[in-house]
């Protein structure tokens, strides 16, 4: 980021900017080791942003939970939409196969 000094972690690597989404520090950015724990993170940590006010600590987590609730409902709606289309297409295919079967001497032909 422009105007910000480069931070280096204890590993000697250039630190990465992360964003905290905890209830105490929602949206607050910090410098951290670029290596994940599986690759041997050195545990370097330094806040980039100043502390947030108490009001935001109360409001932001509630808003995030509300957004996640909307996203969960949206996923359910998409699944229901896909299922309804599959059922609709299946009904149409059955109808067409029976209609075609009646024209062929009563034999039901299945689409393959």
Structure in words:
Residues 9-51 form the GRF-type domain. This is GRF-type domain-containing protein. The chain crosses the membrane at residues 76-97. Keywords: Membrane, Metal-binding, Transmembrane, Transmembrane helix, Zinc, Zinc-finger. β1 (16-20) and β2 (28-32) form a beta hairpin. Strands 1-2-3 form a three-stranded antiparallel sheet, with no helix packed on it. It has two domains: 1-52, no CATH class; 53-112. The N and C termini lie far apart (58 Å). The protein has 112 residues and is α+β, with helices and mostly antiparallel strands. The longest helix has 50 residues, at 54-103. The model has no long low-confidence stretch (mean pLDDT 84). 45% of the residues lie in helices and 12% in strands.
Summary, kept brief:
The chain is of the alpha+beta class and 112 residues long. The protein is built from 1 helix and 3 strands, in the order βββα.
SSE order and pairing:
Layout: E1 16-20, E2 28-32, E3 45-47, H1 54-103
Antiparallel strand pairs: 1-2, 2-3
Transmembrane segments: 76-97
InterPro entries: Znf_GRF
Keywords: Membrane, Metal-binding, Transmembrane, Transmembrane helix, Zinc, Zinc-finger
The percent of residues in helical segments reads 40-55%
Spatial strand arrangement across the major sheet: 1-2-3
Major β-sheet profile:
3 strands, antiparallel
- The helix count comes to 1
Number of domains: 2
Number of strands: 3
Q: What is the radius of gyration computed over CA atoms, rounded to a whole number of angstroms?
A: 28 Å
Structure classification: alpha+beta
* Overall mean confidence score, pLDDT: 84
Provide the low-confidence segments as ranges. none
Q: What would the principal axes of the Cα set say about the shape? A: elongated
Strand content: 5-15%
Taken in chain order, the helices and strands follow as EEEH
Distance from N terminus to C terminus (CA atoms, Å) equals 58 Å
Domain GRF-type: 9-51
Transmembrane segments: 76-97
InterPro entries: Znf_GRF
Keywords: Membrane, Metal-binding, Transmembrane, Transmembrane helix, Zinc, Zinc-finger
């Amino acid at each position: 980021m422009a105007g910000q000094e480069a931070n280096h972690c204890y590993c000697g690597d250039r630190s990465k900017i992360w964003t905290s989404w905890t209830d105490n520090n929602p949206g607050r950015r910090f410098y951290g080791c670029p290596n994940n724990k599986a690759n041997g993170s050195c545990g370097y940590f330094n806040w980039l942003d100043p502390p947030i006010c108490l009001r935001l600590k109360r409001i932001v987590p509630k808003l995030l939970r509300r957004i996640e609730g909307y996203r969960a409902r949206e996923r359910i709606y998409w699944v229901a939409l896909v299922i309804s289309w599959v059922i609709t297409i299946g009904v149409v295919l059955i109808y067409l196969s029976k209609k075609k079967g009646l024209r062929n001497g009563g034999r039901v032909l299945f689409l393959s």
